[in-house]
Fold:
Amino acid sequence: MPLKHLLKSSLLITALATPLGAFPQGAPPAATETVKIEVPESMRQEPFNVDRFASVPANFKLEVYARLRGARFMAVAPNGDLFVSKPDNGYIKVFRLDASGGAPKEHDFATGLQKPHDIVFHKIGDQQYVYIAEKNRIIRYKYSNGDLQGQNMEVVVDNLPDESLSELKGNYGHVLKNIALDSNNKLYVSIASTCNACIEDTQSDPKRGAIYVYDANGSNGRLFAEGLRNAEGLDFVPGTNDLWVTVNNRDNVAYPFKDDTGNYGKVVQSYVDNNPPEEFTLVRDGGNYGWPFCNPDPRQGMDNMPFLNDVQLNPNGSVDCSGMDRISKGIQAHSAPLGFMFTQDTKMPEPYRNGALIALHGSWNRSKATGYKIIYFPWQGNKPGEQIDLVGGFLNSDSTEAYARPVDVAVDQEGNLFISDDAAHAIYKLTYTGPLASAEKEELERAVQVYPNPSRGNLKLKINGLKHPEARFILTNAQSANVLDVTRRLHNGEHNLQLDTDKLAAGVYFLSVIAGDTRVVRRVVLQ
Structure:
């Protein structure tokens, strides 16, 4: 039984089983609420030494679950322990909830590995294994529930390409490996490209920018699919052996159209910003998905995209792009999709229990940054529907700086979502709190009105029908500094208040309104 989605879906969080009636029908709720990220005092090191905010759907909270430098891919063990890879120093970490209710305890499951990355639990007969992808090999450990240290390690696939190859001269752009196992006990290994776009990777042995398949013990390896520049996330639709992947596409693509702009063959930033799209696609045995000769064309939409010749490597169409396997779904160029998982076998809240969650690591060379969030594709007729933002707000309002870069996602047995972040060196936990648990918050939400927004001069508020005798108002700027903190007495009825903001710089701010133990956050713009 393949456990990647189940294992990735087993972290340590406590969520509520959610009745369908708790949510409106139609598209799943998107991230429309701004919340303060909850951070335990022991974890308030930079960047959480100041208040940080994120956007989530209504009735969810986001908290820092653990701090781990360079946290990358995750998997949940059958007993609920959270496994996390640290390629930077060769560790696989295990986090286990503290019985006393404190911060989870951190343990070293494996050390001395070569850039370990992806982690998958998989059961063959009665034997449970944990598979780990190193940069140059795939290993596995026999696993018994509760193991905190790796036992009986064996090498499954050896001699995968890394920077030690003489032809690469110490340079391998995407050396980290990713894996998946299907219900037939087949092991799939993504061997990413060494470069942005190059022909050499298509001529190497094994090919790079490709996926290979093996028996679960590493035998009978062969090429499964190619033309996939850097497939980071691999998972199977639950109940099937349909393999889907997320792919980081190429950068600095040349303008491919011979039109009156005169830009043909030139690298033009306005074109590069949106081309080629990142890829989320079904992968078939024997498929070729275009890279580096053909780039998906999003002009007619992001579904089932045709290809354009890559001007730099295939200008005359010597490689026939019409014969390539089309990309199922595009994602905004340069978003950098990494880890993903299907949710059909999880206890995610009902609206998010039939689709795919994808972590977008974020762009580095787009004129206006993009990504830096968790997205969700509801599954409709065996394919992804329209993209929904599930967790965001890590990128500032002018899209120039982000304090977090999501890497991977995992869901525990109770339906809570873990998110790893290798920039803030954190693991977050997204938990559904439920409408009953947020009655006081709903009262506060209804009571507070900010007007106008955007605002010039002092910020005006109307407080209507709030039962608390006083409220605290904290205004935080985009750099997470509190620039105003006042408490005002209230009386029953309607109150018109004014906050002294006329001397503050123009920009985006977060206004926290706190009554008792309840807080709501409003995003406001001062002009």
Notes: The chain has four helices and 37 strands. The longest strand covers residues 507-515. The mean pLDDT is 92.
